[in-house]
Amino acid sequence: MPDHIVTTVASAVGGGFVPDCSRRNALSTAHTTGDPTGGFTLAELVVSMGVLALLIVLASQFFNSAATVTTLGNKQMDADAQARQLLDRMAIDFAQMVKRSDVDYYVKSSAASPQRRVLQPGNDQIAFYSAVPGYYPSTGSQSPVSLVAYRVNSDSTLSSYNKMERFGKGLVWNAVSTADTPVVFMPIPVASPLPAAELPVPPPNPLPAAAWPQAANMATDAAYELVGPQVFRFEYYYLLKDGTFSDNPIISPHTSLSGMQDVSAIVVDIAVIDPKSKVLLTNAQLATFSTSGNANFLANYTSGLTPGQLRTQWQNTVNGITTLPPPALSGIRLYERFIYLSPPVL
Q1: 148: buried, middle or exposed (CB in 10 Å: 19+, 13-18, 0-12)?
Q2: Which one in 67, 216, 221, 301 has a CA-CA gap of 20 to 30 Å to 243?
Q3: What's the CA gap between 109 and 151, in Å, rounded?
Q4: What is the pTM (predicted TM-score) of this model?
Q5: Beta bridge partners of 337
Q6: DSSP states of 248-287
Q7: Is the C-alpha dihedral spanning 288, 291, 292, 293 positive or negative?
Q8: Distance CA 190, CA 308 (A)
Q9: 2 prior amide bond cis, ω within 30
Q10: Mind spelling out the 3-state secondary structure of 169-230?
Q11: By the 8 A CB rule, do 297 and 321 touch?
């Protein structure tokens, strides 16, 4: 009996009292080791805010860089589109050029007198007959020929100042109108007096006046249209049939153009500025690029320059300019294209 009582008491102690103590100890331990506030320390907040600020700065720089690259890309695409449109239009007109020995052309030439000598400092001009549509008069039978001319307008009073224009004068057939000038033949000049070497013998007296002087100056005409609003510099030279490059379209012993007989191609150089960059410059500042003697002048072609050299000279000039806003200068694009002519008819 005593043994049974002792065993029962021991079992009660082992099964009842010890677990209760263990639970109280566990609860006490959990209560004393937990964080009664549940927040972050000041150091943790400072580190978190610093990391967040760094991420924001990096993200903003990334987006700014992406915006800059996109803007520059759009500027170049605008300039490329303008140049492509103009040069393609020129290629069509030049390919359809009427090449006959009995018609005149208004083209630049550095030949010495008595040959054709037409010097064009600054922006060049060119005029010729071409088998393309033009702006025809309202009456009379339309011929398939137009007088085509290109110029960068230098009249500061006009809205087309420092912009590329195309003259497309649709011509009527000969003898169908007394008011509208048709295609004229030598010795009637297109836009400027003929040189002595190209006059018949004996020369007519008085000498015939130019049929369309507005193709060689800045006079206004309804047949002029804006084809390059962002083109502000225009220069061209010749690839001759002997393989040389020159600003004289005549190869000795020839003394006259005679249907552009010595010219294989006309090499065109243009300078274009995109619209967003153009607003950073005044018209007076833009005109400095085509004003001979100005520090910003994009040089004329001189005989001896090979393809690409004129464009390189222009680029070096643009890179060296310090008097104009750099964002505007970065928007200037330079282009050069060979435009081949068809063989002469006569």
Answers
A1: buried
A2: 216
A3: 16
A4: 0.79
A5: 268
A6: ----TT--S-TTTTTEEEEEEEEEEE-HHHHTTS-HHHHH
A7: negative
A8: 31
A9: no
A10: EEEECCCCCCCCCCCCCCCCCCCCCCCHHHCCCCCCCCCCCCCCHHHCCCCCCCCEEEEECC
A11: no
332: left (phi over 0), alpha (psi -120 to 50) or beta: beta
User: Which residues of the chain are modeled with pLDDT < 50?
Assistant: 1-2, 4-18, 21-24, 26-28, 30-32
The residue count of the chain comes to 346
User: Beta partners for 121?
Assistant: none
Contact between 160 and 146 under an 8 Å Cβ cutoff? The reply is no
- Closest C-alpha to 219, from 149, 284, 133: 149
Please check whether residue 249 is in contact with residue 107, taking contact to mean a CB–CB distance below 8 angstroms. Answer: yes
Neighbouring residues of 118: CB distance < 8 A, sequence distance ≥ 6: 106, 107, 108, 109, 192
Q: What is the pLDDT of residue 113?
A: 83
**How many C-beta atoms lie closer than 10 Å to residue 94's C-beta?**
20
Task: Say what the pLDDT of residue 344 is.
Answer: 65
Q: Which pair of tokens denotes residue 224?
A: 């002029």
Phi and psi at 149, nearest 5°, equal -145, 155
Position 178, amino acid? T
